[in-house]
Amino acid sequence: MVLILIFLSCRYKRQDMMALGKCSLNLSNIPSPSLLPGYTKKLYSLLSELLHKSHFLPMSLTNMNSVDLIPKKNYETNKLISGQLQLSNKTHLVLDETCMEAGKLDEKGVRNIQALGNLITFQKLDYNFQFYPVEIDTNIPVLILSEGKSMLNSDCHVVLQPDKMCLLTINETFEAAKHFMKDPLLSRLRFYLSSIPFKDHEIPSDLQKVIHEDFVKLRQNDNKFSGDDLHILLVLARLHSLSKGQQLLTHESWQTVQDMEEQRKSRIIKK
């Protein structure tokens, strides 16, 4: 369910330094390349069928130290040299961290990791004009696939619990899913995922009081629960309501995302 909500997410407003509406997801406990070779590429191939725009970036050490993620101005040709993060709005960026091997990031690699971090956290990208950076607003939903918790920050970290028997037939499952996702169903799914994020949404006044009271309770139960954590819950609740065609936040959606958050945290503790 949370993966669908991430597909629906988008930055709809800026308030001070916060990019309201954005929600990045880190799926960890992804099968390693040695256990299931090509798993992340097959998963992305399936996801790319559903999404209007997407980009897959393997985060191998070689890639991080060599690829140009940040656009750079060439003053000799007076042209902007494109980078892989120069993506149009609502392009879903899928980062494959499972291919990251042991080694050292060089200066370019460190800059690339920093650029990814800024994109995820602030939805901003600093274009390299050599003598000065030019800050560009972005609206790029990010999905991180990793074995352990990602080195990059994310708004939501979910530990997968793969069924061992299902892993034995995962290739057949991917093939069956691709066979199933044909028009007109595929076109309907893509329209659904691309149109929902831009619908208006409101929180009823009576529910605002409930949310405030729940925030106080959450703080009492966990003193590390912050305003940022509340913001993520509100983003997910908004997306959950919109996913069902509801433009007013409901008690049901608010309670559902709180239950999802409890389950998410319990998986991390168990691990």
3D architecture notes:
It is a single chain. 45% of the residues lie in helices and 16% in strands. It is of the alpha/beta class. The protein folds into two domains: 1-181, P-loop containing nucleotide triphosphate hydrolases (Rossmann fold, 3-Layer(aba) Sandwich); 200-267. Strands 4-7-10-3-11 form a five-stranded parallel sheet. A two-stranded antiparallel sheet has the order 1-2. Strands 5-6 form a two-stranded antiparallel ribbon. β5 and β6 form a beta hairpin. α2 (39-50) runs parallel beside α6 (170-180) and α9 crosses α10 (251-270). The longest helix has 20 residues, at 251-270. The chain is globular, with a radius of gyration of 20 Å. The relative contact order is 0.16. The model has no long low-confidence stretch (mean pLDDT 92).
- State the major sheet: 5 strands, parallel
* CATH class (first level) name of the largest domain: Alpha Beta
Strand order of the largest sheet: 4-7-10-3-11
Share of β-strand residues? 15-25%
Helix and strand run: HEEEHEHEEEHEEEEHHHHHH
Give the radius of gyration: 20 Å
On the 0-100 scale, what is the average pLDDT?
92
Give the count of structural domains: 2
What's the architecture of the largest domain, going by CATH?
A: 3-Layer(aba) Sandwich
Write down the overall geometry. Answer: globular
The total count of helices amounts to 10
Count of individual beta strands: 11
Q: Give the uncertain stretches in residue-range form.
A: none
Q: What is the first-to-last residue Cα distance?
A: 21 Å
CATH superfamily of the largest domain: P-loop containing nucleotide triphosphate hydrolases
**What structural category do the secondary elements indicate?**
alpha/beta
What is the name of the CATH topology of the largest domain?
Rossmann fold
Helix content: 40-55%
